[in-house]
Amino acid sequence: xxxxxxxxxxxxxxxxxxxxxxxxxxxxxxxxxxxxxxxxxxxxxxxxxxxxxxxxxxxxxxxxxxxxxxxxxxxxxxxxxxxxxxxxxxxxxxxxxxxxxxxxxxxxxxxxx
Length: 113
Known about the structure:
By secondary structure, the protein is of the alpha+beta class. It has one helix and seven strands. Strand 1 (about 25-30) and strand 2 form a beta hairpin.
């Protein structure tokens, strides 16, 4: 009886886990002239309303400066977010953490040159 129950649970859970996927890549690009950080999160999904990047956290020198909550993804392949980060000096470290609403996190890092 326990084996049957375990098999039923696995059959119910496996499709959900197989459909959920964290972001594949977080790319950061900072333009020194415009002081704009462009965040591109590669996260292919079928339904941008049911499966999406739900949170983007931006840290500068290990201090969180913004956390953006999302309720859908802007396209089926990526989420792109832009923010102005003024007065960043050479050597400043930027980290962006992207969270999927179904499963997983991915981090991207950049050091200002």
